[in-house]
Amino acid sequence: MSAELDADEVDDSRDDAAGFLADHDVFDVQPGLTEGLTEAQTLLADLVSIPSPSGEEAAAAERLVAFFEAHDREVWIDDAGNVRAPADDSVLLTSHIDTVPGDLPVKIERGVLWGRGSVDATGPLAAMAVAAVETGVSFAGVVREETGSNGAWHLVDDRDTPEAVINGEPSGWDGITLGYRGFLSGTYVATSELGHSSRPEDNAIQSAVNWWSSVAAFFDADDSEGVFDTVTTKPVSFDGGPTDDGLAVEATVDVQFRVPPKYSIDDVREVAEGELTRGGVHWETPIPPVMASPRTPAARAFRAAVRQAGGKPRLLRKTGTSDMNIYAGTWDCPMVTYGPGDSDLDHAPNEHLDLAEFDSSIDVLIDVCERLAD
Q: Of residues 57, 98, 146, 354, which has the active-site annotation?
């Protein structure tokens, strides 16, 4: 399966990259950043050098397209802004193009690349693009994972189920992520008549405070099994006061829940609505939790590949949520999440990735794709 890149292809890709970056504004990049790097490392450094916060991924998407075109792969940007390079669907390699905001200096020091997205998730994204070219499997770089996962939702609606999915997020080159908590968000809204503050009845603001306190207390009582198996409750904004006409009091609370696989989204929603005494909650589209089996062909291939590369496989569960949740909720196929980088550095001001780890992750991905294709 492996398709080694020949010297002419590498030179063409480097020329394309140099021309691309010359035509696009990049921020605070170390001079001569890519000098002496391999083609794969150059792709990574270029992508980290191109600002790509959610909703502004177009320039980074163009760089990915140029990489695939340089290796004679079919590639296009779809209606959502995703980069699509379909091929052998025995494996779909996919990661997100966007990052969180943050203008961090891009530099390489002692074999370590510093910059926004180097870990989450430009490192995994670049590794998967390289592995897709090397092995001939399908690839998708998706947009807006850090906000509403628009790209992943579009992808599951717009293509058939692949035989296996490898989703790109940092796990460390020897780590394999099998589980993520789900995500439920909503807005509580309540209204009450405006009255004198001496009246004993609760107004809408008090009702909002009482409602959220009751919901949080219910789930706080079930925190004995560790963070992953606990429902995390989080109010993210609170607003309240008299209406403009002076006749009523309104209160709104934006809330979020992280839902472990032992609960369903409906379980959490039922508890939250059961604590209502006034008002109601408008729920956003939920993202269900996921817990994949370690015995799927994809998980077994990763364990074998990591061992082959001299590592000891680590099976991980993450307390956050990723696009894997969306894929698992729609596609019935083996899947794992994998990628270079320390997830503790996600969104951090000191985000950085060791280039040796990046290279190791590409070797593992190539091995996994070849095992699954066979």
A: 98
